[in-house]
Amino acid sequence: MQALTSILEFENVTIHAGSLQTTGIKGVNFSLMRGDIALVTVEEGREHIPLAPLAQGLLTPDSGKVYFAGECWEDVGPGRQSMMRGRIRRVFEHYGWVTNLDMMENLCLAESHNTQRPLEDIQQEVCSLARRFGMAEVPVARPTRVHGLILRKLEWVRAFVGAPDLIVLERPFAGAPKADAALLIEAVCDAAKRGVAVLWISDDLRAFKCREMACVRCFRMDGDKMLAEENNRETST
Predict the structure, then answer these.
(1) 226: Cβ–Cβ under 8 A, 6 or more apart, which residues?
(2) Quick one: DSSP state of residue 76?
(3) Phi and psi at residue 198, in whole multiples of 5°?
(4) pLDDT tier, 209 (very low <50, low <70, confident <90, very high otherwise)
(5) CATH no. for residue 18?
(6) Is residue 82 part of a domain?
(7) Domain hosting residue 16, numbered range
(8) Secondary structure of 171-205 in the HEC alphabet?
(9) Does residue 108 sit within a domain?
(10) What's the pTM value of the predicted model, to 2 decimals?
(11) In this predicted model, what pLDDT tens digit does every residue of 148-166 receive, in sequence order?
């Protein structure tokens, strides 16, 4: 086990399907070090795969263990889990916004809650990231009044605010303009160079344009198994 040095590790993880919309996984083994990118390809239209909530400790495996930064989610209490989740950012497969907050409040929420940074500094970073992803400004509105294409790109913004240890991307191109794909890929590669680990789950092959980077490791889902490609450092079953 590499729990002391890995950012994320799945150790023989099995979880059964929870509903018609969520599929199970069986015997998954992989680990991400700082700066690693794991690209997990899934079939288009396939049910939700619970890798992201497992990585965040939001689901408990039926067997096996999930470690974040060397700590098993099941072995720590709620307070410690909350602190650990503060070091993870995520683009949700389906939009995950607090509907009674405006967009700037949503985008600053995790960073302001988990750090001592001045709110003004966080807001400036949010605006800078918005420009990086091709938006002139952050909409002054609540999520229900923002177009879906903009909401998806704002999820990208939220995922890169601050200095997370892990970024989880669930089908991040869904609902996003195809022309902007390169912007997200560039941001992911830059984050990896800074030592951020990235778990990218996608049915869109645009994600695989960055596979030539040495830090990129590719997997594919085959039923409930997660299979590693031959050029990876380890094999998952």
Answers:
(1) 25, 28, 30, 40, 219, 220, 236, 237
(2) S
(3) -130, 130
(4) low
(5) 3.40.50.300
(6) yes
(7) 8-96+165-228
(8) CCCCCCCHHHHHHHHHHHHHHHHCCCEEEEEECCH
(9) no
(10) 0.90
(11) 999 999 999 999 999 999 9
H, E, C per residue of 6-75: CCEEEEEEEECCCECCECCEEEEEEEECCCCEEEEECCCCCCECCHHHHHCCCCCCCEEEEEECCEEHHH
The total domain count for the chain is 1
Does some domain include residue 130? Answer: no
- What mean pLDDT, rounded, does the chain reach? 89
162-205 pLDDT, tens digit per residue, is 999 999 999 999 888 888 998 999 999 999 999 999 999 988 76
Please give the structure tokens belonging to residue 46: 């396939």
Side by side, which strands form the sheet with 216-222? 88-91, 166-170, 197-202, 37-41, 216-222, 225-228
Amino acid at 8: L
Task: Give how far the C-alpha of residue 93 lies from the chain's centroid of Cα atoms, to the nearest Å.
Answer: 10
